[in-house]
Amino acid sequence: MKTVTVLLTKYSDWISTLVYYICGKGYTHASLSIDGGNTYYSFNYKGFCRETLDKHRKRGVKRSLSYQLKVSDQAFAEMEGIITSFQADREKFHYTRLGVLFCVLGIPFQRKWCYFCSQFVAEVLTKAGAVSLERPAALYLPNDFQRELQDSDQLESICTNPI
Questions:
Q1: Phi, psi at residue 154, to the nearest 5°?
Q2: Cα–Cα distance between 48 and 25 in angstroms, integer?
Q3: Are 121 and 43 in contact (CB under 8 A)?
Q4: What is residue 125's predicted lDDT score, i.e. its pLDDT?
């Protein structure tokens, strides 16, 4: 068994503020780590991105929550492969505000090469078989992880404000 981390954070830019108020407050960004929390992968306005806790601190994140999940060795290897393929095709990927809008409306919307942060995290977790989620990846906002992961059989620990 291996451990992966889902990190939820609250940013203060305009789209994050909009998501914050529309979606019941809480968290506005989700990212995924497969290396013990040193490097996180997600999507931002520039597309697929690599993040660190220092990068989050510099952006002024003061509120965060992380979920450490136990996953099988096979699921972990699948996650590594998925993330490696995203990195290899990094320039093709784009952030989708339209996807966020459809998600808020409860409509699953997927365009090739386009993701938003929590959609990416949900897709990697489900495609790898690491975690069973209730809905399609395109219908996940950061707060949805908070509701589902706290009851997951894979949950190892929860850390409040790791940043």
A1: -85, -10
A2: 24
A3: no
A4: 97
Q: Provide the whole-model pTM.
A: 0.93
3-state secondary structure the chain: CEEEEEEEECCCCHHHHHHHHHCCCCCCEEEEECCCCCCEEEEECCEEEEECHHHHHHCCCCCEEEEEEEECHHHHHHHHHHHHHHHHCHHHCEECHHHHHHHHCCCCCCCCCEECHHHHHHHHHHHCCCCCCCCCHHHCCHHHHHHHHCCCCCEEEEEECCC
Average pLDDT across each block of 10 residues of the chain; the chain has 163 residues. List them in order: 95 73 82 92 94 85 91 97 97 95 93 96 97 95 91 93 85
